[in-house]
Amino acid sequence: ASMQALPAGEQIVAIFKHEPFIMHIECRTVDAGQRLLRLAVSCGFRESGLSVGKRTMLAIRTTALRLDVPLAVGQRVLVDDRYLDFLVALANNYFDENFLRTEKL
Fold first, then answer.
1. Exposed, middle or buried by CB within 10 Å (0-12, 13-18, 19+), for 71?
2. Cβ 47 vs Cβ 21: under 8 Å
3. pLDDT tens-digit map of 13-71
4. Which helix (H) or strand (E) holds 86?
5. What are the pLDDT digits (tens) for 81-101?
6. What's the CA gap between 91 and 67, in Å, rounded?
């Protein structure tokens, strides 16, 4: 299915959003950063990365646990209560998964 443009003048006014865990760490050495990066990836933070320059910075993150779902456009609600309950349950599961992954670190 292809996405269609919103009718002129209509804007999304309600979005259900869940942002996954993200942490930025300044590492003392590149070696320490590489060790932490391997640990982060092994804990499920696959989109983590190391930036080496004046400072060695590690970003621990994943996009796998992200939700960004439009709920209403203009005055029109797009979802029913049942689907909203499903989204809340899914987001709560994502919170739990974020917690489990961070506990492994």
1. middle
2. no
3. 889 999 988 999 999 999 999 999 999 999 999 999 999 999 999 999 998 899 999 99
4. helix 81-104
5. 999 999 999 999 999 998 998
6. 7
Return the structure tokens found at 1: 């299915």
d(C-alpha 14, C-alpha 67), whole Å: 13
73 within 8 A of 6, measured Cβ to Cβ: yes
Structure tokens at 25: 């760490």
Which residues, including other chains, have CB under 8 Å from residue 43's CB and lie 6 or more apart?
Answer: 101, 102, 104, 105
User: What is the spatial distance between Cα 13 and Cα 91, in angstroms, rounded to a whole number?
Assistant: 20
